[in-house]
Write a structure and sequence with these properties.
The chain has a single domain, classed as Rossmann fold, CATH 3.40.50.12160. Strands 2-1-3-4 form a four-stranded parallel sheet, with helices on both faces. The protein is an alpha/beta fold. The protein is globular and about 40 Å long. It contains four helices and four strands; from the N terminus they run βαββααβα.
Length: 87
């Protein structure tokens, strides 16, 4: 059975980078990883909302990635991190 392709976008601080690496470590055996968002079946956006510009970047990135539901393979879009926790 073919594995689903997983893509990740990590925004913000070093803590987000570490968090992203941690959950990727848990998922790497279950999914094929891709750096091409257009190819991903599942995309995780690890967001930041520490300052207004980071919040806006997170929102913009989520909206940009959501477009791959129409133009790519995307079936599931997951928002994690500060923005999703705060709002």
């Amino acid at each position: 059975m073919k594995k689903l392709k997983l893509g990740v976008v990590s925004l913000g601080c070093d803590k987000n980078t570490i968090d992203t690496e941690m959950f990727l470590g848990n998922l790497v055996n279950k999914y094929d990883l891709t750096t091409n968002e257009k190819e991903a079946d599942i995309l995780i956006v690890n967001t930041c909302s520490f300052i207004e510009s980071a919040k806006q970047e997170s929102i913009d990135t989520i909206l940009e990635m959501a477009q791959y539901k129409e133009t790519g393979n995307l079936k599931v879009l997951v928002a994690t991190g500060c923005l999703s926790k705060r709002y």
